[in-house]
Write a structure and sequence with these properties.
Oligomer: single chain
Structural class: mainly alpha
Number of strands: 0
Distance between the termini: 58 Å
Largest sheet: none
Helix content: over 70%
Shape: flat
Length: about 230
């Protein structure tokens, strides 16, 4: 048993730092950008043709929150190659596994995080908008300087939880041939025929990663609490 642990642990950790963590970080970064964009569109007061864009944003959030992440991964990686568009994608949309994973995880994260950010922005009292606009600040300045810093304190805990969940969800990337930790564990299991031991090891590594991230989340929350203005 100890020989198996000693021989497999370096491979699993290498896969974690080479694929699992980078996949989660890159996907979460793009997911946050998508989430902020979608949240601002849904909160916008613009009318007319802008309603079409708002409708697309609502549909996007509904679609990715209503379908399983694994199905989304399969559609992007296995389905899009069959989407032939003459003159644009004559051979279908061919994506590398890591790229397909980033796209899917980013879109999925963006859908969920957009609701978190939207709720956080709405939680800021309207009087903050009115007071800032009364002294001549534009709506964009109010949003950037006044609203978003306050909304961040509200959104941080659920967003941090979303990132921790994303780290665990990257195990689904094994289904599209990304060599992250779970995929490597499956490969090693096929060689040593010890599935129980290997899956316990990889579970403990995921637990270690999420524990470290949880500690980091707590530290960030305390730091923001110290800088919060006194009401």
């Amino acid at each position: 048993m100890w020989h198996t642990i000693q021989s497999s642990l370096p491979e699993l950790l290498a896969a974690g730092f080479k694929y699992t963590i980078p996949l989660a970080l890159v996907s979460f970064f793009w997911g946050l950008l998508i989430a902020l964009f979608v949240a601002l569109i849904r909160l916008s007061r613009q009318k007319g043709a802008f309603r079409i864009l708002k409708g697309i944003a609502v549909f996007y959030v509904w679609l990715f929150r209503s379908t399983p992440l694994l199905v989304q991964l399969f559609i992007v990686f296995f389905g899009l190659p069959h989407l032939v568009i003459p003159g644009v994608f004559p051979d279908g949309v061919q994506l590398k596994p890591f790229t397909a994973g980033v796209i899917t995880f980013s879109l999925n994260t963006g859908a969920y995080a957009s609701e978190t950010i939207r709720a956080a922005i709405v939680s800021v009292p309207k009087g903050q908008w009115e007071a800032a606009e009364a002294i001549g600040m534009t709506r964009l300045q109010v949003l950037w300087r006044i609203i978003l810093p306050q909304a961040l304190r509200v959104a941080l805990p659920p967003l941090a939880n979303s990132f921790i969940s994303l780290v665990k969800d990257t195990s689904l990337a094994a289904s599209i041939t990304i060599a992250e930790m779970f995929s490597v564990a499956q490969q090693i299991t096929a060689e040593n025929y010890e599935p129980l031991l290997m899956y316990i090891i990889v579970a403990l590594i995921y637990a270690l990663f999420t524990t470290v991230l949880s500690r980091l989340q707590a530290w960030m929350e305390k730091s923001l609490a110290k800088t919060a203005p006194v009401q």
